[in-house]
Amino acid sequence: MNASVRLLERTLPATVHLRAAVPEAHPSASVLGTDRSGSGALIDESGLIVTVNYIVLGSRDVRVTTFDGREVAAEVVAQDFASGIAIVRAAGGGFQALPVADGSSPLAVGDDAFIVASVGDAARRASSGGITALEHFDANWEYTLERAILSSAMNPGLAGGPLVDRHGRVAGVVSLNMNDIGRFSLAIPIEHYAGHREELLRHGRRVTRPSRAWIGLFCYLLHGRVVVGGLLDGGPAAAAGLAPGDLVLAVGDQAVRTRRELYERLWDHRAGEEVRLRVYRDGGPTTVLVRSVDVDEFFA
């Protein structure tokens, strides 16, 4: 018990509260709003912070509040839309930071872990639990993780905080609250930062990742079919005439029965290529041609 308390005491000063202001004209504002708050973890004494991308997406003004109540300006220095992480740099220096898991003793199902999250300014909450699964995850937007971290630790505050392993290292970035029994939170593995740190900090993105199409849709599964649930305003799918309620039957000549299949078929195309979607609407099949884009450029 004393060891757990000491571990938490070392973690708390390296957590931050983030506030991001986003212009109303930014494409993400209609879905995520213009005033956003989240959690983050300092991973470098110079002020590097890892968080979840949707908190700072489109932000021109980021403010950071440390555990001791200091408020400092910050800037977004890297975003990875594929993994969902973002790197923010707080002004100044001399911050207390957490070590990042390096893969030498990877997480395993059953391992103990805990989450620290901001609940506003200098206030923090923590929750402990265990790793319940390390498995594929797909979301209702164009997003998948080949290896998501699912935990019984419930996220006790705002998203973006660290999932910390038993060695006191950042093992993941908390992204979503889950509803499955025994799986209360989903975290993005920190390897998406640790394995590509230099590339992210130099270019602000993963430039070595192959180009892949993005069309701006939201979807869900219904009776073994992928149904379009919504479209991003101004996105390629909306511009092409795709509509909520459409059943996606195929991308090109390849049938689609799951969200994962839909995304993988889309990502077989490079950004900028035309994607042919076969959909079912109004009692029959029809074809919708969508000119895809690069998601980084769309949200720039």
Question: What fold name goes in the CATH topology slot of the largest domain?
Answer: Thrombin, subunit H
- Multimerization status: single chain
The biggest beta sheet reads: 6 strands, antiparallel, barrel
Number of helices: 8
Low-confidence stretches: none
Rg over alpha carbons: 20 Å
Number of strands: 18
How would you state the average pLDDT, rounded?
A: 95
**Beginning-to-end CA distance, first to last residue:** 46 Å
CATH 4th-level superfamily of the largest domain = Trypsin-like serine proteases
Spatial ordering of strands, largest sheet: 1-2-3-6-5-4
Morphology:
globular
H and E string: HEHEEHEEEEEEEEEHHEEHEEHEEH
Number of domains: 3
CATH class of the largest domain equals Mainly Beta
> What structural class results from the helix and strand content?
alpha+beta
Second rung of CATH, namely the architecture of the largest domain: Beta Barrel
Describe the protein in words.
There is one protein chain. This protein has 300 residues and is an alpha+beta fold. The protein folds into three domains: 102 residues, Trypsin-like serine proteases (Thrombin, subunit H), CATH 2.40.10; 78 residues, Trypsin-like serine proteases (Thrombin, subunit H, Beta Barrel), CATH 2.40.10; 82 residues, Pdz3 Domain. Helix content is 16%, strand content 44%. The strands form three sheets. The protein has a six-stranded antiparallel beta barrel with strand order 1-2-3-6-5-4. A hairpin with a 4-residue loop joins β5 and β6.
